[in-house]
Amino acid sequence: MAAYALVRENLKFGSLFFKSKDVMIFNGMIALGTVASQTAYNVFAFDCPCSPGRNYYYGIAAIGAPALAFFIVGVMLNKRTWDLVSECRLRKLRKLSTAAAFAVLGSILGRAVVAPITWTILSLLQGLAYTCALSEFTDPSTVKGFPPGYNTEDMAMFPCKESVPTELQGFWAEIDRRLKYESQLIGWLVVAGTSLMVFLVMCTRHCCSPLGYQQEEYWSKYRANEKTLFHRTAAVHAQIMAAKYVRSFFGFVALEKDEKEHVVEHEAAASPICSTEWNRVTGVYLYREKNGLPLYSRLNKWATYSEENNVEGFDKEMDVYDSFIT
């Protein structure tokens, strides 16, 4: 039990550590995971068919298919994706301007492309997939001293050194070096282009932000804390509601010690929450202010209007969201 508790506390600490860090660190962890995946794939799984007509498709698939899979997973795991889906379902995007919608999509796609771009760049820098895909398109006449009479079928064998005809073994290093040069050149160009794009996006983001650097950092910390507390409280609330209904059915409820403490401590304050209230705190949110005071989230906005007994004003507010999003 002591070992279990220690592992649980360490996992909890790790979870809180990563939740509390900046998006750049999170993206860095994704990139490192992609590097490990790419390395493992090239060592254990990559195997060029060395066959004309197949090399190209295999090489392109080795670069493109994992990148596409990483992109789709990245979009699926992004909370903003489902905020946007909820916004479309609940409010038909009527409060979202074109600029705001573009900002939301940019935020989703920007985080989703980290792993695909990392995978593509690593594939190009290592050169295995590119060499496999483009070997059969290499023109033998451009290789100094290459004997005549050889065609694409022979060139397609070059990614597999052991399959190259004996009389052509001396040209293997030159062709392999040439193809890797092309692959790495494209890879470094992608690195330079991506770096420039990230720099321009970050400059534009900070220039268009209505917040100062300190307030923007505070907003980031607020969102992280609100998310953690909301999910933790929601879990306890759901547990209390479940315990209440299970008790009503069986006449008792079997709870662990810590669960019993939560139920006893908060049962009097917990009550069912109607769908309307859930919908009010669900969906896309861009930075807003009310009477000069910041509203950092939908929950913050809902609480502000509730304290004023003006929830109807919350629902009737038709201002278009065209402000800054992070």
UniProtKB/TrEMBL annotation:
Highest taxon listed in the record's lineage: Eukaryota
InterPro entries to which the protein is assigned, alphabetical: CALHM (IPR029569)
Main subcellular localisation: membrane
Family to which the UniProt record says this protein belongs: Belongs to the CALHM family.
GO molecular-function terms, A-Z: monoatomic cation channel activity
Keywords from the UniProt entry: Ion channel, Ion transport, Membrane, Transmembrane, Transmembrane helix, Transport
Membrane topology according to the record: Multi-pass membrane protein
GO cellular component: plasma membrane
Pfam families: Ca_hom_mod
Protein name per Swiss-Prot or TrEMBL: Calcium homeostasis modulator family member 2, tandem duplicate 2
Gene Ontology BP term (one): ATP export
Organism per entry: Hippocampus comes
Subcellular location: Membrane
Residue spans crossing the bilayer: 23-44, 56-77, 98-121, 185-203
